[in-house]
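Contributing new records

If you add data, match the layout below exactly. Sequence lines come first and carry their own label; structure lines follow with theirs. Keep one chain per record. Anything else will be rejected by the validation script.
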Amino acid sequence: MKSYVRLGHVRSKTHPHLGAAPFIAILVACVVGLLVPGAARGQTAARDSLPVVKRLNFEGNAAFSDDDIERAIVTRQSGCKSFLLSPLCWVGFGAFKRTERLEPRELRTDVLRIQIFYFRRGYRRVAVDTSVVRAGGSIDVTFLITEGPPIQVRQIELVDFAGVLDSASALADLPLKAGNPFSELDLTASREALERQLKNTGYALAQVLVQASLPTSDSLGAYVVLRGVPGPIVKIGKIEVAGADDVSEDDVLRILTFRSGEIYREDEIIRSQRTLYSMALFDFVDISQSIEPSDSLIDIKVQVSEADAKSVRFGFGLTTAECFEVEAGWTHRNFFGNTRSLTLSGRLGNLGTQKLAQRFPCNQAGVDTEIEEARDAFNTPTWQLRADFQQPWFLGTENWLRLGVFGARQSLPTIYATRTYGGDITVTRQIAPATPLAFTYQPTWNTFDNISKKILFCVDLGVCQPEDIAQLEDSPLLAWVGASLSRARADAVLNPTEGYRFTIEAETASRFTGSDWAYYRTQGEISWYRRVGSASVLALRLRGGLVRPIGSGIEGVDADPGGEGVTNPLKRQYAGGASTVRSYGQNLLGPKVLLADAESLVADSVCSTADVAARSARWACDPTAAGLSSNDAVPRPVGGQNAVIANLELRFPISGEVFQGATFLDLGRVWTDSPAGSRFGWAWAPGLGIRYMSPVGPLRLDVGYYTGGSEELVVVSDVDGQIVLLEDSNGMPALFDYDPYSDFLSRLQFHISIGQAF
């Protein structure tokens, strides 16, 4: 008779005919329970007696990197548990070290693993040996690899694809290439790529058969034949929806990008599945088809599982540009049915700036100045409230409509602080997979705070008299119409490693759009990502833009006697900061002026506020002669008409998949077409960074190094509540040699932010 002991399950009822069997089973279980801990302790003790792997080396590998091979084996070398803990490990704190011991069985198996790794990639004559050098209680393990010559692909032939695919172009796009090593991985990828092309042209049951020969007459050559079996062209038959409850079946069918009677295309099946997921209405989406078509028709089943239509989200963060910030939102994803959505969201930013302005970790937030009006403007919390309504399949499956209303208090430190109220209407059409074309109309009502008006209108627009500033205040309506085209072909949104993304935008405003301001603006950006080695990523971004006023720039107002026109400060080009040129503070690259404290200039007795005429808006005061220092003035960006930014960044792992390092080089310029704007030339910035890969995206710390010299800047000051322009003895704007970079540390610019720079 056989007895079974079921662990974790106890029956309270005994059978009268089992006799002593339950007692024997319990006794056996008790004995096993007493012996197992002892055995486990014995195994642990035996493992602790194994030698520690101090170093792990690879020799002879030329075709593949150490990291590539190391990921294919089990043996690891001891080290620090985290890159960030390295200083503690160097000091000798053992608690932060990771101890790896040599398992003889795994070492022998690792030899086979490396051989298989090479074999599958075309190196079938590889030989692998090991060298183990003992030094005390630790050892150095070296894998000695003799790669040998690879088997090369001599010829690739496509058979039975005539009239179905263009064999020449299909062959050129295959991962497997003639002249390359005969990789089984590339061969499988090539077969799958051909099948995918066939299934995207209606051949739903297509197969590609593989024949690879390695003749004895050419022991290092491989001849590959890929034979197509397309089968019949198949159309979509019946489409069935299962699992829909609150969302109607008609709504699900309407969102799909394929219809009954259309030719079957596998990409459309995948695209429809992603679209359904992106609406967050469903926890599960599966689109499957019948195994065998009937009369060249294939039935589709869409299986969904509905999620909660309502959700609430909260978030908080810290950045060097916005200090502390919090946000919250509520979303109804099936608002009044038909998969419409309504989102209410709010955000508070610039929190803590009153105490931490220009101090770590808020070293780019707010202003640190004695001018109370500036502190009140730029150190006050910002806020935003939005309501967004979205209607999918607007006048067609490919079109989406979004309506929004919002109110906000915005602040770009030392540039402007404004209150904005308005709305926007956006129609988006998917003209290709991951390629939306959007048209937007946005009217807004903007009012600037007092300090922003004084500096923006006087320095940027050349309007300094109070009554003229009041006239410009009567032009608060900014209404623009624009179009944007974007394409995303990267493999991830938050941390891409392959592919590219680009965006092109254009917008204009004039009396025809209902705007008080008139301009046209265009800009574009492209980002490119490529893997380097096994785990590193090379990222490149190019970005450029320009803005030009139409006429004087303000409808019905002659505010530009120089004839160059003026541009709304909200639409000028800015750069510098965590996502552009990282050796500069937020928006500090390009045209700017210095805001100096009038009391510090007067205290030296070289200058006197009595020299300021009541309405002249000018002050005969040489800031250099008055003893002004770079640390006593605040740079204020005024933006430019043109901007060009280029970023090159290498991202690499430094502790598994949790921490990532980066080294970067940023290049940029912001300027105007005026002679004064030409003073601001190109800037470049090398730097280093570290990223923590959190569930919400990369948390980033970057340090950029300022490589430039001093800048000659115009100086303005606040005299009795009026912004005045300092001028020299010749009546020209006084230029001050601004250079706050006295040592190495002062040239370092720290940035804390969320998400990759691009």
